[in-house]
Every structure is written in structure tokens, then in C-alpha cells.
Amino acid sequence: MDRKIHLEPGPADARVTQHLRDLYSAPADPAYWDGLETSIMSRIAHYGEALPRVPASWWSVLERWTMPGLAAAGLLFALAGLAWSRDQAAELGTTYDAFADAVDSEMLPGAVNVVTSSRDGTARREAVFRYVLSH
Fold this sequence. Notes:
mainly alpha, 5 helices, 65% helix
């Protein structure tokens, strides 16, 4: 349902429009602009440094964030380094534990059993037999 409402302006609308134009129109007297400029400049001279300064460029607003930003970045780098070093230490400890633990002879492959078996013939033959059967 596309209903378009067209309202025709009536005499009351014309009066309101004219009143708003009169209310918001620029003053016709040129002395008004000179007086406005004078009052603005006198206020600037009176307050001087007390008026807030407008930044010279858009990025100068970020100037006050420089020190907190650098401190936060340093803290993040320190925490990342701490986490990385703990991860490395844990990995190093796990690797060391894997090599330092005694290895059970049952877990060794058959070829290692042959090499590490005793010199008597029966144990050697048994180790060879286990090796052959494991493949």
C-alpha cells in the first residue's frame, strides 16, 4: 500500500514560513557584523590562554595517549615474553624427562635386544627370534 499524502499549503503555512524567514534571516544592518566581530575579538583578548586550544591537526588529539600506550605495549611484550619462556622451559623439561627416563627393555625393538643381550647363546638366539617375529 503506497499511499502518498500530498498536503497543499494553506494560508496559515504561508504565515508561519514568512515568520520563520524573518526570524532566521541575517540582519540587514552592516554595523551588526562589525559589532559581532568586535565582541568576539574582545572576548578572545580578555580570556587569552584560558580558552581551550584547538589541536593543529587531527592526530594531535592522540598525543595524550602516547605514554599510556607505550606503557601498555611494554607490559604486553613483557607478558608475552614470560609466557614464551615458560612454554620453552616446559618443552625443555619434557624433552629432558623423555631422554633421562630409563627405557624398559620390553619397549625396545628387537634389533636393540639382540645387541644388548648377554653373550651366552640361548639368550642371543631368543633375542634374534623375538626380532624376527616382531617384523
